[in-house]
Write a structure and sequence with these properties.
By secondary structure, this protein is an alpha+beta fold. The protein is built from 19 helices and nine strands.
């Protein structure tokens, strides 16, 4: 069996985002063009079968790992902003449908779902007490893929809703949502309880990532939050740096997110040009900082960066536009419309040292062809330029005590650690001995 993402509505990025959440963002999900057919992308899921139930099911569906014979080989996922499914004629606003389409050869299974949450009103279903609970995009898609799973193996039940809702509850459990009553198939447009409540910016949310992926609980937001928490747990200086980045970020991101909420096309462009490349860059940096001896993890992270910044989008041209912005030059008239649309906010971000480093510098490097030739070296140079020397000064002994944890981030590139050390030594001459002890400066340079 194979899964394809329908590109005709222009919302395949949203479908991929929801599949990424189903995969628990383990770094092995991707999409590839299909030779001779530019209407779809094929969903790929590399690596061994994961343990998490939703990820394992998706892995099986992408890799023909069913125990039962496969009756229908291909499933096509179509994400719509509500409205009528052009193939079936059904209005899927606030809902999703799965059906066998025998009007094409070979026969396919179609999964169609509303990614606009019933025109922004929300979608609700019921828990076992009859209370309205929300139905987010990933559980909705996973519910429909449950139908597709049984359709592909010809194992549908006369009433196929209870098993689909049981599978939906597996997804809900993974996301921390309320569980659905599998014997109550009702629902509609409107808000319901999430049980845990939506995350706030202080919880590590991201306005722009939330806007482009459709949810403050999306896989991308959770992945970003997970990396933030991992860095903060390892290093107090890293946690301080993240706090300063968020402080800068909140000065310009709400305005961008508000505009993105108004239109699907800019959301998809932003997802492909900004969000995915940045997340892939951060994932590679995290792999190098935490797992630099794991060659398989580094290969996966490098491949993800390559996939997130495909050559067909002209890496050099996009990197050139970003580098012009960083140099204080006006955005070129030929730059992608999204960059021109948000020029004031981008120019404001370029004047904020922490946001500039974390977002614009990282994005320019993610798109640079040179970074793809030597990704570890590019990440090392980026980490070496981190504005740690601009953090508010902490007391001497406290700063010195934090250097050991910070130094370990650079075990993959000691030369980059020395480059950062030069700036730290200038900013904190009182900590010269501790910097030398942890490899940030050479004792011969003291």
């Amino acid at each position: 069996m194979s899964i394809f993402l329908d590109q005709n509505p222009g919302l395949s990025a949203e479908a991929f985002s929801d599949c990424l959440r189903i995969s628990i963002s383990d770094g092995n999900l991707g999409d590839l063009p299909v030779a001779g057919d530019d209407t779809v992308l094929q969903l790929t899921y590399d690596g061994a079968r994961p343990a998490t139930p939703t990820a394992a099911r998706l892995h099986d569906m992408c890799n023909n790992n069913f125990g039962a014979p496969i009756v229908i080989q291909d499933t096509i996922i179509t994400a719509l902003s509500g409205g009528v499914d052009p193939n079936s004629g059904f209005d899927i606003t606030g809902n999703g449908i799965t059906y066998i389409d025998s009007n094409v050869t070979p026969t396919v299974i179609r999964v169609v779902y509303d990614i606009n949450n019933c025109n922004g009103a929300g979608i609700f279903v019921f828990d076992t007490d009859g209370n309205q609970i929300s139905l987010a995009r990933p559980p909705l898609l996973y519910h429909e893929l449950s139908h597709a799973f049984r359709g592909a193996t010809d194992t549908q039940l006369p009433n196929d809703e209870p098993p689909a809702e049981t599978d939906e509850n597996v997804m809900r459990t993974e996301m921390g949502y309320c569980l659905r009553d599998v014997n109550n198939h009702g629902g509609g447009c409107g808000h319901g309880d999430d049980c845990a409540g939506p995350p706030t910016p202080d919880d590590g949310g991201c306005f722009i990532v939330s806007a482009t992926t459709g949810s403050p609980r999306s896989a991308e937001v959770e992945r970003l939050r997970g990396l933030r928490d991992r860095v903060a747990a390892r290093s107090a200086l890293g946690a301080q740096l993240i706090d300063q980045i968020y402080a800068d970020y909140y000065r310009f991101s709400p305005a961008i997110a508000a505009e993105l909420d108004q239109s699907a096309a800019p959301r998809e462009v932003t997802l492909r040009l900004v969000v995915r490349p940045l997340l892939a860059w951060y994932a590679l940096a995290g792999a190098l900082a935490f797992e630099h001896t794991d060659k398989a993890a580094l290969r996966r992270a490098s491949a993800e960066l390559s996939s997130a910044c495909p050559r067909l989008l002209s890496r050099a041209a996009i990197a050139g536009v970003l580098e012009s912005l960083l140099a204080g030059q006006p955005i070129p008239s030929g730059a992608p419309r999204m960059l021109r649309q948000f020029a004031p906010q981008i120019e404001a971000a370029a004047r904020l040292p922490f946001a500039r480093w974390a977002i614009l510098d990282a994005l320019a490097l993610a798109w640079s062809p040179a970074s793809h030739r030597k990704p570890a070296a590019a990440v090392g140079q980026w980490l070496a330029s981190a504005p740690l020397d601009r953090l508010p000064a902490s007391r001497g002994m406290q700063f010195e005590a934090q250097l050991g944890a910070l130094a370990r981030f650079f075990d993959f590139d000691p030369a980059a650690r020395l480059q950062l050390g030069v700036r730290l030594a200038r900013a904190r001459p009182d900590a010269a001995a501790a910097l030398a002890d942890h490899g940030f400066v050479s004792r011969g340079d003291m």
